Amino acid sequence: MDLGGKIRKGDQRALAKAISIVEDRKHGYRSLLSRLYDENNKGQIIGVTGSPGAGKSSLVNMLVKEWRKRGKTVAIAAVDPTSPFSGGALLGDRVRMKDHEEDDGVFIRSLGTRGSLGGLSEACQDVVRLMSASGFDLVVVETVGVGQSELDIMKTADSVALVLYPSGGDVIQAFKAGIMEIADLFIINKADLPGVDQLKGELEDLLHISERFGKWSPPIVETISTENKGMNEVVEKLDEHFRFLVSSSERTERRLSQRKQEVTRRLQEQFLFEISPLLDRYFTHQEVLEQDPYETSEKIFQLWKKGEGTKRGEG
Ligand SMILES: Nc1nc2c(ncn2[C@@H]2O[C@H](COP(=O)(O)OP(=O)(O)OP(=O)(O)O)[C@@H](O)[C@H]2O)c(=O)[nH]1
Ligand SMILES: [Mg+2]
Fold first, then answer.
1. Which residue, of 68, 87, 129, 139, has the greatest Cβ tally within 10 A?
2. Could you say which ligand is closest to the alpha carbon of residue 92?
3. What SS3 class is residue 139?
């Protein structure tokens, strides 16, 4: 059986292999993805974001337990932050996720942010697609909520959970970063620490002033991941949100805007591969310095239109 067929059958080794192909943008990755693409994959894609140390991994670990109790299979893509501050994160994640090592119903993969080829958000979305094609009931993407590419990743999820914790500054940060607007569920983790009510108050105030919530009011749930508290409620709310998406026109609307953004990003990726090498091929450093950048980019664009782009030989 070919790789695509094996993935569809839920073969985890095939899945792992395909993920490497896709991450490294190896020859044929796009046709593999195209073949496995299925608009009607039944699984729910859940984005979990929040600042470093908010307890995302601890939470996801406990949620997995809850989902497994309910007979659901789960795949997790944890985006490995490059930030030196969270250098220990991966090791920590591995230790936490060890709980599920023996379980065939759970698949965990860390994604590097090496990102030499293409963007992180594209690669991440592709990996999520592979996981969905493998038939997991739930695919969870964990990212630290900073930066545009992570915001893009969140925008590709069906449901977005923002993890906050009582210690100040967090809510405003999320608000500024644009995450508040796309969050479908707010989780106040570390609810064992002081300041929960204050955080909840701030959150409610901000929710009042943003206008988008006509049909779905994002609930606020409190959790203590280290004590496995509140997981039941998070799972229920995520379920509820998914039912809401499926039963309303919201899901189609969301997908339409997601698809448009995705096609744009993919074009950018493709374009970048083809067109940016022309800069070094046709212009000396001296020319780059002397010409204004508008002129240079216009010239490059004209060269590309004349067919000077690089063909990547993609299968
Ligand atoms: N008191 C308390 N501590 C918690 C809770 N949940 C997680 N922690 C602790 O918070 C720290 C960070 O937890 P992680 O799960 O690694 O947080 P994260 O958001 O995944 O962190 P990064 O991946 O580095 O961004 C760990 O020491 C956890 O034990 C909680 O509910 N209460
Ligand atoms: Mg983590």
1. 139
2. 1
3. strand
**Residue 60 CA from chain centroid, whole number:** 14
The residues, ordered by sequence, that sit 6+ positions from 140 with a Cβ below 8 Å of its Cβ are 46, 47, 48, 60, 63, 64, 74, 75, 76, 77
Cα 145 to ligand 2 centre (Å): 11
Give CA–CA dist 17/222, Å, rounded.
Answer: 38
Which domains can be identified in the chain, with CATH numbers?
38-250 (3.40.50.300), 263-308 (no CATH)
For the CA of 229, the closest atom of ligand 1 is 31
The alpha carbon of 194 and the centre of ligand 2 are apart by a number of angstroms equal to: 22
Residue 85 confidence (pLDDT): 38
pTM of the entire structure? 0.83
pLDDT of residue 224: 98
Q: What is the pLDDT of residue 116?
A: 42
Residues whose CB is less than 8 angstroms from the CB of residue 315 and which lie 6 or more positions away in sequence, other chains included: 27, 28, 30, 31
Which pLDDT value is given to residue 89? 45
DSSP 230-287: SHHHHHHHHHHHHHHHHHSTHHHHHHHHHHHHHHHHHHHHHHHHHHTHHHHHH--HHH
**How far is the centre of ligand 2, averaged over its atoms, from the C-alpha of 32 (Å)?**
29
How large a percentage of the chain has pLDDT more than 70? 83
Supply the pLDDT for residue 212.
Answer: 60
Q: For position 310, what pLDDT does the model report?
A: 59
Residue type, 280: D
Say how far apart CA 91 and CA 78 lie, in whole Å. 12
**pLDDT confidence of residue 83:** 41
Question: CB under 6 Å to ligand 1: residues?
Answer: 50, 52-58, 86, 89, 92, 144, 189-190, 192-193, 224-226
Look at ligand 1, atom 17, and give the residue with the nearest C-alpha: 55
Which residue stretches of the chain have pLDDT < 50? Answer: 82-91, 115-116, 312-315
Closest residue CA from atom 14 of ligand 1: 55
